[in-house]
Amino acid sequence: MAPKLLVVGGGKMGEALLAGLVDAGWADAGALAVVERLPERRAELVDRLPGLAVHDTAVEAEGVVLAVKPQDVVAACAELVRPPRVLSIAAGVTLATLEAALPPGTAVVRAMPNTPATVGAGAAAIAGGAAATDADLDWAEGILSSVGVAVRVPEEQLDAVTGLSGSGPAYVFLVAEALLEAGAAVGLPDDVTETLVNQTLLGAARLLHETDHGAEALRVAVTSPNGTTAAGLAVLDAEGVRDAIVAAVTAATERSRELGRT
After folding, report:
1. Considering just the CA atoms, what is the radius of gyration of the chain in Å?
2. Residue 25 in 3-state DSSP?
3. Residue 92 to residue 136: CA distance in whole angstroms
4. Model pTM score
5. Domains of the chain, start order
6. What is the pLDDT of residues 40-80, one digit of tens each?
7. Distance CA 260, CA 66 (A)
8. How far apart are the first and last CA of the chain?
9. Fewest Cβ atoms nearer than 10 Å: which of 3, 41, 150, 214?
């Protein structure tokens, strides 16, 4: 009996998807399979997901996720066995490239996930190819929702998604680095600073996610007139931090477009 899903690529993202699908009840490990070239990595996957079928070459399956490096996508497509539907999470690989590398009529969905998917908190966007139906998009969304959230966009917006949520974790980590440096600068011990910074970022994210207030309202609520937060925000405004973030997303978006043209 063919597995319900074959994941091609047993790296961090591939493992995260497999574990997320099992945890979410999408499928038992025994209904899933993975293609992984490295013997030691295959052993790790079997140890972490008992019952998972592990192969060194592609096998027939009800659906396929391509979780390989972008430069390996075309070769991976050539090895697939009659794939009815394919979800690609390879950055920058267009639907046209995927459809040209797969049998005619294959339902193809392209996705841009981000690294927090490895801890079940990912943000992904999906776009369907010419043969992809609403059912195929539902299928892809269900897979990615097992490790976070997924939204649907036209393919031409995926570069912007890359610039925003694909690269976005790096922007947040940069803020964390700066706050860690700031804690040291104002005399806090490193361990105290790390605890406070990590929890502050987590708490702020939860407020955004779990309350009905938007980012602006939450910022205003914590900013008393002439208070400490107002003093800090005045410096950030003077230094152009808001504009710099917008410029960073714009630059990352354009770079994604450039890479997609190569």
Report:
1. 21
2. coil
3. 20
4. 0.91
5. 5-154 (3.40.50.720), 168-261 (1.10.3730.10)
6. 999 999 999 999 999 999 999 999 999 999 999 999 999 99
7. 17
8. 40
9. 214
